[in-house]
Amino acid sequence: MMKRNVNIFNSKNEISAFFAQELAQLSQSKSENDYVSLALSGGSTPKAIFEYLSGSGSEKILWNKIRFFWGDERCVLPDDKESNFRMTKESLFDKIHIPPQNIFRIKGEDDPLAEAKRYSKLVADYVPSVENIPVFDIVMLGLGEDGHTASVFPDEINLFDSSELYVSTRNPYTGQNRITATGKIINNATNVFFLVTGESKATIVAKIINKHSGFTNYPASRVKPNSQNLIWLLDSAAASLL
Length: 242
Prior knowledge:
Blueprint: E1 5-9, H1 12-29, E2 36-40, H2 44-53, E3 66-70, E4 72-74, H3 84-91, H4 112-126, E5 129-130, E6 133-134, E7 138-141, E8 166-170, E9 177-181, H5 183-186, E10 191-196, H6 202-209, E11 230-235
Parallel strand pairs: 1-11, 2-3, 2-7, 7-10, 10-11
Antiparallel strand pairs: 4-9, 5-6, 8-9
Helix pairs in contact: 1-2
Protein backbone atom coordinates (compact mmCIF):
# COMPACT_ATOMS: atom_id res chain seq x y z
CA MET A 1 0.00 0.00 0.00
CA MET A 2 1.47 3.34 -1.01
CA LYS A 3 2.13 5.80 1.77
CA ARG A 4 -0.06 8.88 1.53
CA ASN A 5 2.45 11.58 2.29
CA VAL A 6 0.48 14.82 2.11
CA ASN A 7 2.12 17.97 3.44
CA ILE A 8 0.12 21.19 3.69
CA PHE A 9 1.80 24.59 4.00
CA ASN A 10 0.58 28.16 4.38
CA SER A 11 2.51 29.54 1.41
CA LYS A 12 4.79 28.84 -1.55
CA ASN A 13 7.61 30.14 0.61
CA GLU A 14 7.05 27.40 3.19
CA ILE A 15 6.89 24.78 0.44
CA SER A 16 10.14 26.14 -0.96
CA ALA A 17 11.87 26.00 2.43
CA PHE A 18 10.82 22.36 2.88
CA PHE A 19 12.04 21.41 -0.59
CA ALA A 20 15.32 23.29 -0.09
CA GLN A 21 15.99 21.32 3.08
CA GLU A 22 15.33 18.01 1.29
CA LEU A 23 17.65 18.97 -1.55
CA ALA A 24 20.39 20.16 0.82
CA GLN A 25 20.36 16.91 2.78
CA LEU A 26 20.43 14.84 -0.40
CA SER A 27 23.29 16.84 -1.94
CA GLN A 28 25.32 16.48 1.26
CA SER A 29 24.73 12.72 1.39
CA LYS A 30 26.37 11.96 -1.96
CA SER A 31 29.86 10.49 -2.07
CA GLU A 32 32.66 12.03 -4.14
CA ASN A 33 31.73 10.59 -7.52
CA ASP A 34 27.96 10.51 -7.06
CA TYR A 35 25.42 13.15 -8.03
CA VAL A 36 21.85 14.01 -7.15
CA SER A 37 19.80 13.47 -10.32
CA LEU A 38 16.91 15.94 -10.37
CA ALA A 39 14.17 16.08 -13.01
CA LEU A 40 12.66 19.56 -13.03
CA SER A 41 9.15 20.76 -13.76
CA GLY A 42 7.89 23.95 -15.31
CA GLY A 43 5.09 26.14 -13.94
CA SER A 44 4.52 28.91 -11.41
CA THR A 45 5.08 26.81 -8.27
CA PRO A 46 8.47 25.44 -9.37
CA LYS A 47 9.44 28.98 -10.41
CA ALA A 48 8.74 30.20 -6.87
CA ILE A 49 10.80 27.32 -5.49
CA PHE A 50 13.69 28.06 -7.85
CA GLU A 51 13.66 31.71 -6.85
CA TYR A 52 13.79 30.69 -3.19
CA LEU A 53 16.59 28.21 -3.88
CA SER A 54 18.63 30.87 -5.65
CA GLY A 55 18.41 33.13 -2.60
CA SER A 56 18.15 32.25 1.07
CA GLY A 57 17.49 28.60 0.33
CA SER A 58 20.82 27.95 -1.36
CA GLU A 59 23.17 28.12 1.61
CA LYS A 60 23.42 24.41 2.42
CA ILE A 61 22.87 23.00 -1.06
CA LEU A 62 25.95 21.62 -2.78
CA TRP A 63 25.11 22.72 -6.31
CA ASN A 64 28.12 20.99 -7.88
CA LYS A 65 26.66 17.68 -6.63
CA ILE A 66 23.40 18.07 -8.54
CA ARG A 67 22.69 17.16 -12.13
CA PHE A 68 19.66 18.88 -13.60
CA PHE A 69 17.35 17.21 -16.08
CA TRP A 70 13.74 17.95 -17.11
CA GLY A 71 10.54 15.96 -16.84
CA ASP A 72 9.07 17.79 -19.81
CA GLU A 73 9.67 20.65 -22.19
CA ARG A 74 7.75 22.70 -24.73
CA CYS A 75 9.01 22.44 -28.31
CA VAL A 76 10.26 26.01 -28.54
CA LEU A 77 13.64 27.74 -28.69
CA PRO A 78 15.54 27.81 -25.36
CA ASP A 79 15.14 31.60 -25.11
CA ASP A 80 11.38 31.50 -25.80
CA LYS A 81 9.20 32.75 -22.94
CA GLU A 82 7.38 29.38 -23.04
CA SER A 83 10.57 27.40 -22.44
CA ASN A 84 10.87 25.51 -19.15
CA PHE A 85 14.64 25.73 -19.55
CA ARG A 86 14.53 29.53 -19.88
CA MET A 87 12.36 29.83 -16.77
CA THR A 88 14.79 27.71 -14.74
CA LYS A 89 17.82 29.54 -16.12
CA GLU A 90 16.43 32.97 -15.23
CA SER A 91 15.04 32.03 -11.83
CA LEU A 92 17.85 29.71 -10.67
CA PHE A 93 20.89 28.96 -12.84
CA ASP A 94 21.80 32.61 -13.53
CA LYS A 95 21.90 33.29 -9.78
CA ILE A 96 23.96 30.37 -8.47
CA HIS A 97 27.32 28.75 -9.19
CA ILE A 98 26.45 25.63 -11.15
CA PRO A 99 28.87 23.81 -13.47
CA PRO A 100 27.47 24.05 -17.03
CA GLN A 101 28.16 20.35 -17.55
CA ASN A 102 25.64 19.58 -14.77
CA ILE A 103 22.75 20.95 -16.86
CA PHE A 104 21.10 18.58 -19.34
CA ARG A 105 18.34 20.39 -21.18
CA ILE A 106 15.76 18.97 -23.54
CA LYS A 107 16.33 20.63 -26.94
CA GLY A 108 12.83 21.88 -27.62
CA GLU A 109 13.96 23.50 -30.85
CA ASP A 110 14.79 20.14 -32.46
CA ASP A 111 12.50 17.57 -34.11
CA PRO A 112 10.29 16.25 -31.26
CA LEU A 113 10.48 12.55 -32.15
CA ALA A 114 14.25 12.61 -32.63
CA GLU A 115 14.80 14.67 -29.49
CA ALA A 116 12.66 12.35 -27.35
CA LYS A 117 14.92 9.49 -28.45
CA ARG A 118 18.12 11.47 -27.92
CA TYR A 119 17.06 12.62 -24.47
CA SER A 120 15.99 9.12 -23.46
CA LYS A 121 19.49 7.90 -24.31
CA LEU A 122 21.14 10.83 -22.54
CA VAL A 123 19.19 10.16 -19.33
CA ALA A 124 20.02 6.46 -19.58
CA ASP A 125 23.71 7.36 -19.94
CA TYR A 126 23.93 9.85 -17.07
CA VAL A 127 21.40 8.65 -14.48
CA PRO A 128 22.19 5.45 -12.53
CA SER A 129 19.91 2.57 -13.51
CA VAL A 130 18.30 -0.37 -11.79
CA GLU A 131 17.36 -3.20 -14.16
CA ASN A 132 18.14 -0.92 -17.11
CA ILE A 133 15.72 1.82 -16.06
CA PRO A 134 17.22 5.14 -14.85
CA VAL A 135 16.48 6.09 -11.24
CA PHE A 136 16.15 9.83 -10.65
CA ASP A 137 16.73 10.85 -7.04
CA ILE A 138 13.94 13.43 -7.37
CA VAL A 139 11.23 14.03 -9.94
CA MET A 140 9.31 17.29 -9.56
CA LEU A 141 5.77 17.22 -10.94
CA GLY A 142 3.03 19.75 -11.33
CA LEU A 143 -0.69 19.05 -11.62
CA GLY A 144 -2.98 20.63 -14.18
CA GLU A 145 -6.64 21.41 -13.47
CA ASP A 146 -7.42 18.74 -16.09
CA GLY A 147 -5.37 16.14 -14.19
CA HIS A 148 -2.37 16.20 -16.51
CA THR A 149 1.14 15.86 -15.13
CA ALA A 150 4.49 16.43 -16.83
CA SER A 151 3.11 16.74 -20.40
CA VAL A 152 0.91 13.67 -20.37
CA PHE A 153 -2.64 14.93 -20.97
CA PRO A 154 -5.89 13.02 -20.43
CA ASP A 155 -6.52 12.57 -24.17
CA GLU A 156 -3.20 10.70 -24.47
CA ILE A 157 -3.11 9.04 -21.06
CA ASN A 158 -1.77 5.88 -22.69
CA LEU A 159 1.56 7.67 -23.17
CA PHE A 160 2.11 7.36 -19.41
CA ASP A 161 2.44 3.61 -19.90
CA SER A 162 4.82 3.85 -22.87
CA SER A 163 7.82 1.53 -23.00
CA GLU A 164 9.97 4.58 -23.84
CA LEU A 165 11.53 6.90 -21.24
CA TYR A 166 10.59 10.12 -23.07
CA VAL A 167 8.06 10.60 -25.84
CA SER A 168 6.76 13.32 -28.11
CA THR A 169 3.29 14.63 -27.26
CA ARG A 170 1.15 17.72 -27.74
CA ASN A 171 -0.95 20.07 -25.69
CA PRO A 172 -4.56 19.34 -26.79
CA TYR A 173 -5.69 22.89 -26.02
CA THR A 174 -3.00 24.83 -27.88
CA GLY A 175 -1.65 22.20 -30.28
CA GLN A 176 1.87 22.91 -29.01
CA ASN A 177 4.30 20.02 -29.39
CA ARG A 178 6.03 18.86 -26.24
CA ILE A 179 8.44 16.21 -24.98
CA THR A 180 7.62 14.40 -21.77
CA ALA A 181 8.90 11.76 -19.41
CA THR A 182 6.67 8.70 -19.17
CA GLY A 183 5.54 6.68 -16.19
CA LYS A 184 8.37 4.24 -16.85
CA ILE A 185 10.88 6.74 -15.51
CA ILE A 186 8.62 8.80 -13.23
CA ASN A 187 7.54 5.75 -11.25
CA ASN A 188 11.11 4.50 -11.05
CA ALA A 189 12.31 7.61 -9.18
CA THR A 190 13.42 7.42 -5.57
CA ASN A 191 11.32 10.47 -4.61
CA VAL A 192 8.43 12.03 -6.54
CA PHE A 193 7.20 15.44 -5.42
CA PHE A 194 3.83 16.81 -6.52
CA LEU A 195 4.07 20.60 -6.12
CA VAL A 196 0.61 22.14 -6.24
CA THR A 197 -0.65 25.56 -5.15
CA GLY A 198 -3.73 27.69 -5.61
CA GLU A 199 -7.48 27.35 -5.15
CA SER A 200 -7.98 26.46 -8.83
CA LYS A 201 -6.22 23.14 -8.17
CA ALA A 202 -8.28 22.18 -5.11
CA THR A 203 -10.88 20.10 -6.99
CA ILE A 204 -8.40 17.97 -8.93
CA VAL A 205 -6.16 17.53 -5.85
CA ALA A 206 -9.11 16.15 -3.89
CA LYS A 207 -10.16 13.87 -6.76
CA ILE A 208 -6.69 12.34 -7.09
CA ILE A 209 -5.76 12.04 -3.42
CA ASN A 210 -9.17 10.86 -2.22
CA LYS A 211 -9.66 8.63 -5.27
CA HIS A 212 -13.04 10.05 -6.24
CA SER A 213 -15.09 8.32 -8.92
CA GLY A 214 -13.36 8.52 -12.30
CA PHE A 215 -10.00 9.54 -10.84
CA THR A 216 -8.20 6.93 -12.95
CA ASN A 217 -9.02 8.98 -16.06
CA TYR A 218 -6.40 11.52 -14.98
CA PRO A 219 -2.73 10.92 -15.84
CA ALA A 220 -1.70 12.14 -12.37
CA SER A 221 -3.50 9.15 -10.83
CA ARG A 222 -0.94 6.87 -12.47
CA VAL A 223 1.97 8.35 -10.56
CA LYS A 224 2.76 5.48 -8.21
CA PRO A 225 6.50 5.29 -7.57
CA ASN A 226 7.90 1.85 -6.87
CA SER A 227 9.76 3.39 -3.93
CA GLN A 228 6.43 4.37 -2.28
CA ASN A 229 7.88 7.88 -1.84
CA LEU A 230 5.12 10.01 -3.37
CA ILE A 231 5.23 13.33 -1.56
CA TRP A 232 2.55 15.99 -2.00
CA LEU A 233 3.55 19.58 -1.20
CA LEU A 234 0.37 21.66 -1.16
CA ASP A 235 -0.53 25.12 -0.01
CA SER A 236 -3.69 25.53 2.08
CA ALA A 237 -5.69 26.72 -0.94
CA ALA A 238 -4.87 23.66 -3.05
CA ALA A 239 -5.63 21.43 -0.06
CA SER A 240 -8.87 23.17 0.87
CA LEU A 241 -11.18 20.33 -0.32
CA LEU A 242 -9.28 17.46 1.28
